[in-house]
């Protein structure tokens, strides 16, 4: 179990399977430079940038641009996630093979922001990706069940008069995709799992030997829909914050390995997109600079994960899921290392305005957190010290 006062801890550099860096297209919310700096500050040495940019990352041209820009900035390895379908419209498969053969060597594909909801398109995507040795990461949401909803369907949303997103919209897609992956002999990865029922489905699928993996966000490990009481749009996110009982099950599932990894779903938004009426505000919240202390608070301090577990869920497993050979493992003597030095006792107060990200939509505003990356090292070079990137 957790002990404090034990000094700093060395971990392999953290790996985030799921971030939105907004470049190209929405550089007023985040850029590859600002997002890389936020990642390094948070202890990350590799991130996977989702393709819901403008233009959508559905070609090697866009993916290679993101990869090269990440290299130029040099603070964290930015791996572009390619779109599964052209324009993320869910109809025609994008040329995953050409993206995989490009400079960025794209190995993870997702239509995140949207769900690949047509089962035939998903089946063909799984077969195509499997042939490439690539992974489909699914934003599990049946849009016919959510239809514009902006909050978890339950007593809180009913009382507040907010349209509800039922758990079934997520759980039915996970069950379907597990079975499609089994038949396609493919791997599938489930993004941001948010319900207790999803955990049951994942447990069942893993018991069947299906090659399914899943991630959970720090915000779903800490927050529930009681936060919506004041209609504060900073708590609006897809999938929505669920109920206390779901949060408890998610924590246990991460501890037991039914959920494999923590991923932030870092989703910066410009103030004019976020500070609006709840129903109109964009969904999503910042995650990169607060992920580590939130995981320590929800998982390590209660004894649900020891340090090995933190390393496994925030570095080793995400690196394995995405097929990164140079991340998520102990350092060999003499190699240019990817690592992070963590001070678990460092106390700080979250202020959106003081975070490195351009946007300031943190759901943890004003919260006192314990734990920080004292130093982040990418291939032997210090990329951040004391929560600030080395620019
Ligand atoms: O809350 C979310 N924000 N969920 C998504 O699926 C997309 C993301 C975004 O791009 O802002
Ligand atoms: Zn998503
Ligand atoms: Zn996302």
Structure description:
The chain has helices at 32-41, 60-73, 96-101, 119-132, 143-146, 155-160, 167-184, 196-207, 218-222, 244-256, 271-274, 291-300, 307-322; strands at residues 9-12, 14-19, 44-49, 77-80, 108-109, 135-138, 151-152, 164-165, 188-190, 212-216, 261-262, 339-349, 368-378, 381-385, 388-389. The protein has 391 residues and is α/β, with parallel strands linked by helices. The chain is globular. The mean pLDDT is 97.
Bound molecules: (4S)-2,6-dioxohexahydropyrimidine-4-carboxylic acid, zinc ion
Distance between the termini: 36 Å
Largest sheet: 5 strands, antiparallel
Please provide the count of β strands.
15
* Share of helical residues: 25-40%
Shape: globular
- Alpha carbon gyration radius: 19 Å
- The succession of helices and strands, N to C, reads EEHEHEHEHEHEHEHEHEHHEHHHEEEE
Short structural summary:
This protein is an alpha/beta fold.
What is the secondary structure topology, with strand pairs?
Blueprint: E1 9-12, E2 14-19, H1 32-41, E3 44-49, H2 60-73, E4 77-80, H3 96-101, E5 108-109, H4 119-132, E6 135-138, H5 143-146, E7 151-152, H6 155-160, E8 164-165, H7 167-184, E9 188-190, H8 196-207, E10 212-216, H9 218-222, H10 244-256, E11 261-262, H11 271-274, H12 291-300, H13 307-322, E12 339-349, E13 368-378, E14 381-385, E15 388-389
